[in-house]
């Protein structure tokens, strides 16, 4: 059984399958607690190469509830940055430290096979 999010990417129900699947695309994690409410910046642990560009979609996984939040970058991520600038998103609850951030499979496929 799978749950579905807005752009059609599935979230597997079983935690072990989620870990095995998502770790293939894991980028980094949050390095502080993100307080509930509207945010436009996600503090992260630096992951080196600035491979993320404005418009890319990443997913933030709350490591307590395992809920995924789709985030759209509004500027390029550059090596050394300590945060990702994202379109405004509102979190109903605090996001714990060390919550994982994953690269969107849809974005990855668009890089491999650009749309006409």
Question: What's the SSE blueprint?
Answer:
Blueprint: E1 2-4, E2 10-12, H1 15-22, E3 26-29, E4 37-43, E5 57-61, E6 68-72, E7 83-91, E8 100-103, H2 105-112
Antiparallel strand pairs: 1-2, 3-8, 4-7, 5-6, 5-8
Could you explain the architecture of this structure?
A hairpin with a 6-residue loop joins strand 5 and strand 6. The radius of gyration is 14 Å and the shape is globular. A 4-stranded antiparallel β-sheet has the order 3-8-5-6. The chain has a two-stranded antiparallel ribbon with strand order 1-2. The chain has a two-stranded antiparallel ribbon with strand order 4-7. Helix content is about 15%, strand content about 35%. About 20% of the residues are buried.
Structural class: alpha+beta
Helix percent band = 10-25%
Q: How many structural domains does the protein architecture include?
A: 1
Number of helices: 2
How do the SSEs run, as a string of H and E?
Answer: EEHEEEEEEH
For the largest beta-sheet, the strand count, sense and barrel status come to: 4 strands, antiparallel
Task: Name the poorly predicted regions.
Answer: 1-20
Strand order of the largest sheet: 3-8-5-6
Name its key features.
alpha+beta; 116 residues; Thrombin, subunit H; 8 strands; 2 helices; two-stranded antiparallel sheet
């Amino acid at each position: 059984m799978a749950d579905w999010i807005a752009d059609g990417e599935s979230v597997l129900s079983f935690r072990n399958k989620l870990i095995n699947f998502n770790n293939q695309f894991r980028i980094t994690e949050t390095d502080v607690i993100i307080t509930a409410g509207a945010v436009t910046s996600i503090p992260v642990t630096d992951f080196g190469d600035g491979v993320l560009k404005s418009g890319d979609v990443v997913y933030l996984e709350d490591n307590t509830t395992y809920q995924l939040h789709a985030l759209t970058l509004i500027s390029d991520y550059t090596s050394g940055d300590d945060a990702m600038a994202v379109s405004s998103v509102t979190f109903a609850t605090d996001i714990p430290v060390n919550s994982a951030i994953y690269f969107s499979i849809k974005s990855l496929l668009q890089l491999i096979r650009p749309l006409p």
